[in-house]
Specification:
Elements: H1 2-17, H2 20-34, H3 42-66, H4 72-78, H5 82-107, H6 110-126, H7 133-151
Helix pairs in contact: 1-2, 1-6, 5-7
InterPro entries: UPF0756_TM
GO cellular component, one term: plasma membrane
Transmembrane segments: 49-67, 79-99, 111-144
Length: 152
């Protein structure tokens, strides 16, 4: 019963904040939870969902290439500007943070609750986008490693 209340609270927060992504995601989980045998899908969705999401985001990112809005000329121009270099470095950094974050989430699932709560706060209070839990986990991993190193 607690999970239903928690999910309904998150849905209410999404509705109050008018955050479509949070509303759809929560409604989908509630709908799945309502189907008797669907709970058997939860472990698979939990373990593979991040990869599915990354794939969907990657498809969206590649569409401008397919529609010829972005080509080799734009890629080469990225190497000619400071913002292009910063974007390349940030892209590398985010991918490294994400890989560490996935490891942290797998090894410390209790961190997921804090990350979800932090993401919801960022989305609702600061009008952020809920695309960063894996990156947030990676940042958490790095900070915890720094604390661990400092404590030695």
């Amino acid at each position: 019963m607690e999970s239903w209340l928690f999910l309904l609270l998150i849905l209410a927060v999404g509705l109050i904040a008018k955050n479509t992504s949070l509303i759809i995601a929560t409604a989908a989980v509630l709908a799945l939870k309502a189907v008797p045998q669907a709970s058997k899908l939860f472990p698979m969705i939990q373990s593979k969902g991040i990869n599915w999401g990354v794939t969907i985001i990657t498809v969206a990112i590649l569409i401008p290439i397919a529609t010829e809005q972005i080509g080799f000329k734009e890629l080469l121009s990225a190497f000619k500007s400071p913002v292009g270099w910063v974007a390349i470095i940030c892209g590398v950094g985010v991918s490294l943070l994400s890989s560490r974050g996935v490891g942290l989430l797998a090894g410390s699932p209790e961190v997921t609750v804090a990350l979800v709560f932090g993401t919801i706060l960022g989305v609702v209070l600061l009008k952020g986008v809920a695309a960063g839990p894996v990156i947030a986990a990676g940042m958490t991993y790095c900070i915890m490693e720094l604390f661990s190193f400092a404590m030695k």
